[in-house]
Write a structure and sequence with these properties.
Strand order of the largest sheet: 4-3-5-6-7-8-9-10
Number of domains: 2
Structural class: alpha+beta
Distance between the termini: 54 Å
CATH superfamily of the largest domain: Fructose-1,6-Bisphosphatase, subunit A, domain 1
Order of helices and strands: HHEEHEEEEHEEEEEHEHEEHEEEH
CATH topology of the largest domain: Fructose-1,6-Bisphosphatase, Chain A, domain 1
Strand content: 15-25%
CATH class of the largest domain: Alpha Beta
Bound molecules: 6-O-phosphono-alpha-D-fructofuranose
CATH architecture of the largest domain: 2-Layer Sandwich
Mean pLDDT: 95
Low-confidence stretches: none
Helix content: 25-40%
Amino acid sequence: MAQRTLSRYLTEEHRNKGLIPANLKSLIEVVARACQAISIAIGKGGLGGVLGEAGSDNVQGEAQKKLDVLSNEILLEANEWGGHLAAMASEEMDLPHLVPHRFPKGEYLLTFDPLDGSSNIDVNVSIGTIFSVLKCPEGADLSSPEAAQAAFLQPGTAQVAAGYAVYGPTTLLVLSVGDGVVVFTLDREQGQFVLTQEKVRIPEDTKEFAINMSNRRFWEAPVQRYVEEMTAGREGPLGKDYNMRWVASMVADVHRIMTRGGIFMYPLDEKVRSKGGKLRLMYEANPMAFLVEQAGGAATTGRQRILEIAPDGLHQRVPVILGSKNEVDRVTAYHAA
Ligand code: P6P
């Protein structure tokens, strides 16, 4: 049977279900091609002269890797001429990037973390690209990058699509347009993303948790209690032994959860409290929360559903607890206790 490529999948979803307007289909294909180009650049590693520091800092004050800058440029250049976007926002840029006047403007906004987990690049551990698509509000003020920020400040429930690419032993594209989650594997010979999994479901229970344990002394009491109970194992109140994983690439940790369940936590802790959290709402927490919920999981800050947060800034940070529904519900309930 002929392989169901990303284009065929999007066409069939569009034709059979009317779920994906033609311009959104084209936008997703452009983002996928950009991820393919990023995958190729990453794959060259030291041979491509793309490892190491770029010698600059991003808006977060984080030292940029060469691949952070390159990935951001690939996504900007791939998307600005397509005619589907009004503006783009990236972890690597302080302000939105407006579509240049020489190109037609479209009705969508794109946010992305071009290369998440970049501290893992130089040690050859999986990294990824995270993206989110919003409709540009009618009458949005796009007269300047500063003015355009307001158009992006929509809750995660307003997303029309979200996805990530994970650059690991294989390059995968994980996508949802609001009709469940599907996985495509990059066929490098064909240069195509090919559908390899439909209807991704996150098991409601799990025995695997992901958290950076070195922050333990900074956590709030509900998270302290929850991790204490999990590490107490079968003799403890949760009555089962848990395993722990922490890749320190959100895309890799979330993909493991999409594949076999688990709970991922980057909670509010004393170290990041002043910033509101570690992970960014618009291009990390919201797209991942959208995907996780579409796969039957849950995603909260510990105190509220991530997708319902009313953003107050393009680079707003939030606590993130997501994954297997029964575990997320448990630790969220501890916050309310
Ligand atoms: P820590 C990567 O820098 C990132 O933004 C996420 O991908 C990852 O989950 C987290 O930060 C890792 O943070 O504090 O463990 O290095």
